[in-house]
Amino acid sequence: MFKLSQGKSGKFHFTLHAKNRQVVLTSEAYNTRTAAVNGIASVKKNAATRDSFETRTAKNGKSYFVLLAKNGEVIGQSQMYAHRSSAYTGIKSVMANAPGATTARD
What we know:
This protein is about 25% helix and about 30% strand. It contains 2 helices and 7 strands. The protein has a 7-stranded mixed β-sheet. The protein is globular and about 35 Å long. The model has no long low-confidence stretch (mean pLDDT about 95).
C-alpha cells in the first residue's frame, strides 16, 4: 500500500509499505499532491523492471537502493541495510508490492 501524506512544510511525499506494513520505499518531497500522485504512478510503472533499480553504498558502508524513472531521476529510496543482500530482498518486495498497491491518505 502507498501512503500519501503532507508534511509540516506543506510538501507531499509517499511511502510504499510491504504486506507486513514495513516501509520499503520513500519518495522525495513534492510541491503538490498531484505531483506526488504522479510519482506513485511512476513507481507502479517502473517497479516491474529490475533494471529500474540501482543498489548503492552509503558513506557509512550500509547498502540501500533507489528506483529510477526512465529519464534516470530517482523516484524513491529504500532504508539503509546492513547487508547488500537485504537491499536485494527490498527490491524484490517493491517489485512484488508496488504494481498493484492501493493508495491511502494520511
